[in-house]
Specification:
- The chain is α+β, with helices and mostly antiparallel strands.
- Helices cover 23% and strands 23% of the residues.
- The strands form three sheets. It has a two-stranded antiparallel sheet. A two-stranded antiparallel sheet has the order 3-4. It has a two-stranded antiparallel ribbon with strand order 5-6.
- The chain is elongated, with a radius of gyration of 49 Å.
Amino acid sequence: MSLLMSTPAFAQQAPQNTNIAGPTASATGNVTNQAVQVLQGPYPVTTFGQGVSCPGPAMTIAPFVTGNLNNNTDPFSYQSNSGSAGFTVGFSTPLNGTITEVCLEAARTSIARNQAEADKARLDFELVRALRCGEMKRNGIHFHPNSPYAAICADIVVINNTPEPIRDETTISQSQGEETSAVDEG
């Protein structure tokens, strides 16, 4: 039924004004230059005490992450982002080998001196321990076997184990009239 009741369609006439094509183009872009700079800084320094500090070689590994996001508020414009990650490796060494070797020799001397002082202190400790433990054993004094200090004198052997008599003789000198203390050297 709709075919019978349709009205004819007529073409419309074009308006009298003429449009001339005026092509335009626009481009937008964003360039980001990124660089990673690694600063080595001073060489690592090892200090050996007594003012001896020597620089040494170093290897540095530095990670980095860079990125850029170009987010425009216009929903029809182009949006971009970029990113990268990685690491840099750097090697550095002192160039004057003579000074480095002299410094290392001073460090060896310092270490030897420190070890000699430690050995001397240990020897002094052991000699005092031997003297005191020997005196205790000669006088019949010892730590209880269950004491944590019993092991201190366990390795001390007294060859002459007869205790020296303690002499405290006070005599009055008849000629001077004063007290004197005499120790028998026999």
